[in-house]
Every structure is written in structure tokens, then in C-alpha cells.
Batch of 4 targets.
Target 1
Amino acid sequence: MDKKDIYMIQGTDYKQMTLELLRACGLAEAIGDRHKKVGVKPNLVAARPASSGATTHPEIVDGVLTYLQEEGFENLRVLEGSWVGDSTAEAVRVSGILDVCRKHQVEFIDLQKDRSVPCKAAGMEISVCQKALEVEYLINLPVIKGHCQTAVTCALKNSKGLLPASEKRRFHSMGLHRPIAHLNTVIHQDLIVADNICGDLDFEEGGNPVTMNRILVFADPVLCDSFAARAMGYEPRDIAYIRIAEELGVGSTDLEHAVIHDLRPDRKQEAMLAPKGRAAALAGYVDAKDACSACYGSLIYALDRLDEEGLLRGKKRRSIAIGQGWQGESGKTGIGRCTRCFEKNLPGCPPSAAEIAAFLREEWR
Ligand code: SF4
């Protein structure tokens, strides 16, 4: 798999989707030696289930461990340290990931109990948990979701779970962006399996999940976070830690030259969680008929960006059409190729939140 590659799959059979992705990207060949110490790092920020939009789905961890064991890898561990104030032991239990580890007889390492080692990180000293540094091939399983301080969180910020509590506190006192970028000069993420199933609209602790039903694989964490930023309606270089990480040589924001391998290009409408909280309020502007979840979710993220800019004020409810049920019908404003007969239409299948936000901004100007 090349750094420019993005493997993508859509659906609701999350374990099977993970297996298909890992087979397609040739993970076993990339790791090589079956005795290598392989670390799997989910996002267990707090003791919340994945359906809240905060944590990695256990089906993804199950898919990764199943694949690795089928391919003969024996030296596996799952490792994580939750945020300060929450217990990792509780978070791994509540998430269902502890049961997955037990099923596969793979050790779960609670990094809140680990020692740390000071490391040089491109001109900054950062202490990192020792067990994380011992890993020889790191598979990161972040959730694509919003964050109250950094707007977006995904692969680069998920590395913060490999720090001791004192260092996590120091990162917050430093404003997060710069230390996160520097940390990723020490932590090498070999593969990223990004959980884009139902990440939170704007808060890392969950509560406003936005259904997207998508899983993606990247070899470059900066490209991964650039994709996540666009998927949530931002330009990658507007997110400071993504920009700084690129400047430090961690990876590239160049989505224009990325090569997307869409493993299930036939779009199907899948079951979605009912929008909650702020996501439910934004859904009031949408007239959906059989919309695919990635299309619908992208529109919700785009409306959130436009709401922040004050552009939703005075807009009519149910004024934006989306979904396969609109094919062949006419109307005023429609999103995605299914509404191509509408007066104003944004093509794409699905378009990203950044594209939708730019289109509606232009329409409403
Ligand atoms: S454009 Fe239509 S088929 Fe494509 S993702 Fe959107 S709703 Fe689905």
C-alpha cells in the first residue's frame, strides 16, 4: 500500500468490512515477519459505547485481530490509555473491546499503569509510555469525530492515548495543536483503520453521533486527518495540528493526488441511528428520501459548519433534498447525483461535507 492510497468501504457489517479492507491493502505483506510486535491502538477516550460517537467499534478490533491471527501473527497486543479522569479498565470493558481481546487471547495493555520514557520530538521533549515505544508495527484505530478544542480529531490526535497522564495534561496547557504534531514525529503509525461509522458531530466524548457507516484505511496519518477534516467540512490546512504535522514531515495533506480504492462502489441505503442533540436540530433542514448514510452524514456536518458561520438563520426547514428516492424528480436544491434533475444540484456520490458547505455557501450568498 502506498502513502497516497485510501481504501474505503461502506456498509453495516463492520467486522467483514474490516477484513475486506485489510485483505485489499495487503497488510500481512506490509508487516512481513510474523514474530513482529504488532500493537493495535483503539480510541477509548472514555467509558462510552461506540454508538455514542466517542470510541472505536469493537467489530473493527475483532476484524483486525481475526485477520492478523489468520495470517499467522502471534505477537499481538491492544493498548490504550483513556483521558485523564476516566479509567481505561472501565472504558475497555464498556466498549466491548475487552471481550474481543479475551476471545482472541490477546493481551490488553492499560497504559495508565505503564512507565514512561522521555523522547526527542523535533525540538520538543515528550514522555511516551514505554510499552507503546516497544511496538514494532502500530495499527491505529481512531474515530473520525469532532473535538471541542481542535475541531477535528482522528489519527494524529489518537496518539495522545500513548502518553502518561501528566503529559496529556501538559498537552492541554500547550493548546494541543503543536504538541500533537510533534508527538507524531516519535510515534510512527504504520497503518490507520479509521472508524467513520458514527463519530460525534463536535465533541470527543460523544453524545451527537452522525451515522456515516464507513471504514477507511490509510498509510499516512496526515492524509487520514486531511480526509477526516474534509469529511467534516473543514479545509485540512485550517486545522493547525494537521498543518504543523505536514511541516514536520509526518505526512502529506495532498488529497488531490490521493488514490481512492472504493471496495463497494454500489451505493446502498443503510440503517442509520436517529440524529440526536445538535445533529437532530440540523436534520430539520434536510428533506431526505432513502439517503445513503455517508451522503446524509456529510450534509449534517456541512450544515454544522454553515450554522457556525450564522448562515442557517432564516433558512426554511426541509429545504435541502438528498437521497436515492429523489432520482428522476425535480425540485429546487439537491445534494448528490440522485438529485441531478434539481434546479440547483451538487454532484458527487457522496460529495464531501467541505464540498456541500462550499456549494450551499454560494447558493445562500
Ligand atoms: S448521491 Fe445518491 S447514491 Fe450517491 S451517496 Fe448520495 S444518496 Fe447515495
Note: DSSP finds 14 helices and 16 strands in the chain.
Target 2
Amino acid sequence: MYSVAEVDKEICASTKCRLCTQFCPEGNTILYDDAVGTAYVAVDRCKGCEICVGICDDLAKHHAIKMVSIDQVKDGFEISKVGFKATFA
Ligand code: SF4
Ligand code: SF4
């Protein structure tokens, strides 16, 4: 079992900062959903490096991202493609 990043959408939506999306080393992995107004993680692409956690905690000071075991991802399996998001519960 491995861990992936998960965004607390309630906290994130109150900030609109987008900072984490600029630092993830994996393309199209932590993205910003303009319709909902929060960042989200494409679970299929996340490598579990935790860089985004440090960015949100230490740089943005919002503490909205935590690592969770892949089998405990709350919002289901989010798959990214450029400009498209599909969620499977
Ligand atoms: S750094 Fe944190 S608060 Fe900012 S967009 Fe990312 S998850 Fe949201
Ligand atoms: S844990 Fe690493 S790969 Fe996964 S979303 Fe965060 S920065 Fe990207």
C-alpha cells in the first residue's frame, strides 16, 4: 500500500492560493478545479513525494494537504487528463 496526497477542499476553497500546483514535480497531478475553486490530486499520477504537503504547510501556511493511504482516498479515484477530470467513486 502506498500513500498519495489529498486536499482538504473546505480549507483550500477558503484560500484560492493555487501555490501547490506550481511545485509538484509530476505533470498534471495536483491541479486546480476552477469550477469548484479548490486544488485536487489526480490519484493515478501522484507519486507520494509529499512536496505539496510542505508547500501548503510551510509556504502557503494553509495546512490543507495530507498524505493518505491509497485505499482511504475520500473522493474516489481522480484521473487527470489535460483540461479534463473524471471522478470514479
Ligand atoms: S497550497 Fe494548499 S491552500 Fe494552496 S491551493 Fe494548494 S492545497 Fe489549496
Ligand atoms: S505528493 Fe508529490 S506527486 Fe503527489 S501531488 Fe504532491 S507533489 Fe505531486
Note: Residues 59 and 88 are 31 Å apart (CA to CA).
Target 3
Amino acid sequence: MQTLDYNDKVVMITGAGSGMGKLAAQNFSKAGAILAICDVNKANIEAVAAQLREEGCEVLASAFDVSDESLVQKFVADCLHCFDKIDVAINNAGVLQPIARTHLLDLEILDMQYKVNIKGVFTCMKHQITAMKEVNNGVILNLSSVAGLGAAANLSTYSASKHAVIGLTRSAAVEYGRYGIRINALCPSHVDSPMMDSAEKESHINKENIAAANPMKRLATMQEIVNAMLWLCSDYNSYMNGTTIAIDGGLTAM
Ligand SMILES: NC(=O)c1ccc[n+]([C@@H]2O[C@H](COP(=O)([O-])OP(=O)(O)OC[C@H]3O[C@@H](n4cnc5c(N)ncnc54)[C@H](O)[C@@H]3O)[C@@H](O)[C@H]2O)c1
């Protein structure tokens, strides 16, 4: 029987310096994976890598911006050089926008959403797929959001970027299914992560109010989202392709 065992699997995770990416790195390491992790925050990614190495995990770590194609290409090449393959890629790096109505947003906010959330995911997918296609095998999981499935008032550019992640996911899934590459998108609702903490501090939103609006009357924990990642990317889940999976306490069922 196939299990959630990641022994000998090479797992690339972007945005692994904090939040769900960091927790995912720790969980995939515990499940036996070899890791290739990156983040734009150098101090954070180095600290995560040091801790994982102390625990015996084989780790390639690098600090760069996922929207810089030459650096993404180099990281994928370094990963192939060190480990020969990429079995799983989780494109998790992302940024939130300031919480505000559309007419109040500067165009720089839209540019930033495009740069990290769309161009970053596209660039990573492009080079991951190139590597995976060589061996007719691979799994890619892109972090979208419930904001990618429907309206997100006061988050219009973020919502647009997360809709785009779903478009990239679905199109690539159809293009590369024939090569044994499965590509899906994960759509969490509000997760109690550093991103939410910053939003609470900077944009004066209130986690309690957000929790009250969810059918389960709480935010998701990061572990609940990472649990889904572990299953979605495993051999146990071998026929899911081009799907968007909401882990949202029932929010999108309302
Ligand atoms: N927290 C939530 O409520 C929530 C809900 C739905 C979806 N998501 C998505 O989940 C993902 C992870 O979110 P999180 O809550 O763990 O946030 P987080 O802010 O804790 O982590 C995001 C990480 O991405 C890194 N990053 C940002 N821009 C980057 C870039 N250009 N290149 C490389 N790394 C970059 C950051 O440095 C950070 O370490 C994001 O894509 C986010 O949009 C989050």
C-alpha cells in the first residue's frame, strides 16, 4: 500500500522561510524528504535550513526572489545537480496586499501582486515542469486561496492574482498530465499564520471577526493546511490533476 512516506523524494518549497512554507519544510523533512527550499528573506531561510540539517535532513537552501527567472532557473539546476530530480514542488511564496477598496489602491500594489503571486508561480512552474518532463514524473502544488475562487472585498488585486494561479494550474495540468505530471492548486481560507498577523497589525483587521464569519468559527491552523499538502503531493493521491482544493472550514459552501 502506498503511504505518505517521502523517503528519497526531492521536494522543492518556495517561501519556506516563514509560515506555511516553513512548517511544510519541517513536515516533509519528518516524512523523509530531501528538501530544496528558498525564500526572499535570507536570514529566515538560512535559519530554517540550519535547523533541518541539525535534525539530519539533506537540504539545499537559497535566498532569492521567485519572480527573477535567472535565479529560479539556477536554483532548479542546482537542485538537479545535487539531487538529480525534483519529485514535488510547492509554489507557496506569496504576498498579501494592504486591505483597502479598489479605488484607493496604487498601481504599485497591483504590480507587486503580479510580480510575486503570478510571475513567481509561473516562473517556478516553467522550470520545474522542464525538469519533471525529462523523467515523465512530478507533482506541483500551487498556493492559491479562497480569494482565488470568488470575490474578496478589499483584496481585489490579491484576489485577481490568486484567480490567475488557478488559471495557470488548470492550463498546465491539461498540458502536462500526459507526461505524468500532476498540477493542482490549494485554496485555504484565513490561516493563523505570520501573514495574518501582519495583516492584523498593518490593516487593522480582526482575527476574531474573521473567525466568527467562518462556519467553523475559527481560522485554520497552519498544520491543517500542511496536512493537506502532505496528502495532495503524495503517491497516495495519484489521479488528482488540475483541481482546486478549498480547505476553508466550509466558507465557500455558504
Ligand atoms: N495565511 C493565510 O490566511 C492564507 C490564506 C490563503 C492562501 N495563503 C497563501 O499561502 C502562502 C503562504 O502564506 P503564509 O500565510 O504562510 O505567509 P507568510 O508571509 O508567513 O509566508 C510567505 C513567505 O513567502 C516569502 N516570499 C514573499 N515574497 C517572495 C518572493 N518574491 N520570493 C521568494 N519568497 C517570497 C516570504 O518571505 C515568506 O517567508 C501564500 O501564497 C499566501 O498567499 C495564505
Note: The domain at 10-188+222-247 is CATH 3.40.50.720 (Rossmann fold).
Target 4
Amino acid sequence: MPRIALASAIAATGHDDDQAPLLAACAHAGLDAQVLAWDDPTVSWRRYDAVLLRSTWNYTTRLPQFMAWCERVDRVTTLLNPLPVLRWNTDKHYLADLAAAGVPIVPSVFVETDEEPLTALRDFLALHLDSEEFVVKPAVGAGSRDAQRYARDQEFAAANHIGRLLDGGRSVLLQPYLASVDRDGETALIYFDGDFSHAIRKGPLLRADSDAADALFAREAITARVPVADERSVAGHVLAALAKTLGLATPLAYARIDLIRDSRGEPRLLELELCEPSLFFVHGADSASCFVDVVKRHVAAGPYAT
Ligand SMILES: Nc1ncnc2c1ncn2[C@@H]1O[C@H](COP(=O)(O)OP(=O)(O)O)[C@@H](O)[C@H]1O
Ligand SMILES: [Mg+2]
């Protein structure tokens, strides 16, 4: 019986809603699955036929250590998704690559650690004169941590936030706040092996009047959603651009595509999640067992060549 490790984090224990359905589907499909924390140094990862990244959410403030762990795992077993994909996808600079490939992304400006916060912010605001609000978030982030929404007249508070992130060695992403999220939420489309599985609606997460979240993840309001044709079309575009950008010969075991509509009503890519996305199995009938079938095939195929 193949043995797989589901990689979580010590701090995520008990918080991953995907875990119970995934473990049940693994047991049903004859996969010996065990949940282990990536930040537990006592684990011997070579004992598993594959290591599947799941709730490793706390890597965002220690990316070098996390990537070093991914590299160690990759040397001794099959890592899902594969290492080059994880390297690329753990930093939201990947959005620039996808924009260059023609994907409609949420308009994004990156601020690097050698830049001056207030100047960078004013340049951004001058580019987006019609945006009443904007978002400051770290380029390496997850679960809305350290992300915050500001009004145009909160320039100094926002510049402070940018400065704090830059001082911590973290690049920053500035985006107009797409207000459609307040009414329509965002749509997350989940693909297994390149095939659409299911989708969910996630309610808005950034309140206008609160400080940046620093919990491991924000509480999310999730419901099942049937994606509209234009969302399916943008998601297809994202997957094609991904394959081209990274030179992937075959589809990835899992991908999640998060979209928000802009002021013209067009869906735009907020995030492409290829590392440790929540897959919301409870909102997709049979989705956990379909996913486990895909994982089994990837494990049998062995390490992914890119
Ligand atoms: N430009 C934006 N417009 C509207 N809402 C946003 C925007 N950027 C982020 N958000 C809100 O913040 C949440 C977290 O941002 P996201 O880019 O998904 O980063 P992560 O999930 O990696 O922390 C989103 O789910 C959304 O609710
Ligand atoms: Mg997100």
C-alpha cells in the first residue's frame, strides 16, 4: 500500500477543514496517509512514497527555511506539487509572469526592499486615480496575514505598513481594492490534473476599519458556487499560461484559481494557488476521492520532471 505524508504545520493542528475528508478518501482508496508537520524536525520524510503539501500555512515569514525543507524532501521522495512549481508559486511575483503571458490579473505594483515606501505608494496612487481604496500585502503571504485595506486619505498609515514589511525583508504588493468582493465575494475554482472539479465563493476578508490580520489565517465565509462561463474561461487561460511559463508537459495534481471581478465586471486573477491551497472538499461532491485518485496516479508516476 503506498504511503503518503500530508504536510501540515505544528501551528495548523486542528485547523485544516480538508483534512478529515482527505484522510477518509485516502483510507477508502487504499492509501496509507499520515498527517505530519513540515516544521517537525524529527520526521523522516524518506519513509513516504510521496509528500503532499496541505496546511503548511506558516512558511510565509520563513520562506528560505521552507524552501530548504522542500528541497530536502524532493531529494528523497515525490513532492506534490513539484519543487520548481513551489519555488515559483510561493511568491506573488508570479502574477507579473502571468500578466506578461496575457492573463488578466488584479492590477498589481510590486515594491521592493530598496524602495522608499511613500514614494512608491504615491506612484501607485497616481496610476489608479479612480480607486477609492487600495490593498497593501506581502508578496509572500497566505491566509490574509499582514494584508490590509486603506482609503486614499490613509497614505501615511499605508506607507508605515509598507515600511514595516520592507524593513522585515519582505517585498510588497499594492493593488486597487476591487469592491465587487464586498457584494459578490471571490470565486475559487479548483482543478485536479487539469480538470475542473468544483468551485466556491469566499466572502470578503479585509475590513475597512481593522488592522492587518496576524492570526495564522482569517476566518472565511465559504459556500459552494457554480462558476460563470467567463470565470471558467479566465481559469483556462491561467492554466495554459502556467504550463507555458513553467514549461509543464502534463497538468499538476492540484491548482486553485481565485478570481475577483473588476469595476467593469471582468474576472481577474487574485491568486493562483499551487502550493498549499485549501481545496474545500466539503463543498464539492466526491471531490476528495477524485483528488485521491489523481494523487495515486502522480505517486505511481514518481518524481515530476520539468
Ligand atoms: N485587490 C483586492 N481587492 C479586494 N479584496 C482583496 C484584494 N486583495 C486581497 N483582498 C482580500 O484579501 C484576501 C487575502 O488576499 P490574497 O491576495 O488572497 O492573499 P492570501 O490569501 O495569500 O493572503 C482575499 O481573499 C480578499 O478577500
Ligand atoms: Mg487568498
Note: Residues 229-246 form the longest helix (18 residues).
